Amino acid sequence: MTARHLVKLLPALLAVTASPGAYACASCGCTLSSDWESQGFTAQPGLKMDIRYDYLDQNQLRSASGTISPAAASQLNQGNQEVEKYTRNNYLTLGFDYSFSPAWGVNVTVPYIDRKHSTLGTGSDGYTVSSGGGAYNSSTSGLGDIKVIGRYQGFAEARNFGLLFGLKLPTGSHTETGTSTDPANPGAPAVIDRGLQPGTGTTDAIFGAYYFGEFNRNWSYFTQATVQSALDTSDQYRPGTGVNLNLGVRYTGLAGWMPQLQINARYVQHDAGNNADTVSTGGTLIYLSPGLTVPLTKQTSIYGFVQLPLYQNVNGVQLAPRYTASVGARISF
After folding, report:
1. Rounded CA separation 174/5 (Å)
2. How far apart are the first and last CA of the chain?
3. Which of 7, 163, 184, 279 could form a disulfide with 131 if both were Cys (CB 3.0 to 4.6 A apart)?
C-alpha cells in the first residue's frame, strides 16, 4: 500500500467522533477515539461539538511487517514498483453529536483535509526519477467525506451498550490533479491516485457496536467495533472494506486531569476496480494511543493524544507514519 492508500485505510473506526481518516489509509492512525463522551458513551441528552486537528506524516516505506529502503522497494515487481517519497496530512474535523434521549443519538463529522504528496513513480532507482514513470507532486486541500452516524443504546437500563449505523457520504472531491515531475512530461497535470483524493467518491455503510463501564470508582473502560464498506463504485474504484476495534481505559481520580490509554486495531481489504491499486492497498494495523483530557469548565474540555504503532503489516509497499498527533476541544451545550 502506498502513502495514498494508507490515507484510505484509517478512517472507519471513528463512527461517532471527529475522524480525519474516513478513507482507506492502512496506516494513517485514524482509528483513534478522541473523546469518551463524543463517542456516544453517555446517556445524557443534549448537543456536543468537537473540533479536532490531526497531523500524520507518512514518511516511512514499509512492506509486509517491516521497513524497506527506497532502493530495495524500487526493485520489486520487476523494477516497476512505485516508490513514494512522503505524504503529509493535516486534518481539521468538526463534529456535532446530538442525543435526542438517553437511548437515541446522532453524530455528524465534517473533515477538512490538507495533503501534500510526492512520488518517484515507477522505474526509478528509489532516489531519482525515471522518464515515463509517472512521477509527480501534489498539494490538495478541501472538504472530505462527511459521516452521519446514528446510535441506539436502549438495550440495558445502564445505557452502556449500543449499536451504530450510518453512512459516509461522497462529499469530498476525487478528481484533484497534481503536477508532473516526470522528465517525459514536466509540469503537466498529473492524475492523483484515488487513495490520496479528499474523497473516495463512494457512499459507504457503517455498522458497529460499543460497550462501556467501570472497573471501580476511578477506573472506567470502553470497547468499540465497527465495519465500513462501500455500497457502490465510483469511476471504477471501490475502497476496501475496513474493520476496526478500539479498547480504552481512563482514570478519573485526578482533579483536573484525565489520563487515557487506548489500543486501536484496524484490518482493511484491498481496494478494487480498474482505477484502484489492487496490490499495495490494505493491511493490519495496531496502535497504542496514550492521551490526556483536561476539563476547563463543566461544558468545555481539551484533549491530546499520540498514536504509536505497535504492529503494521501492509500489503505491497506503502508509506506509514512513525506517529500520529491529535489535539482537540469539546463543548457541551
Report:
1. 13
2. 42
3. 184
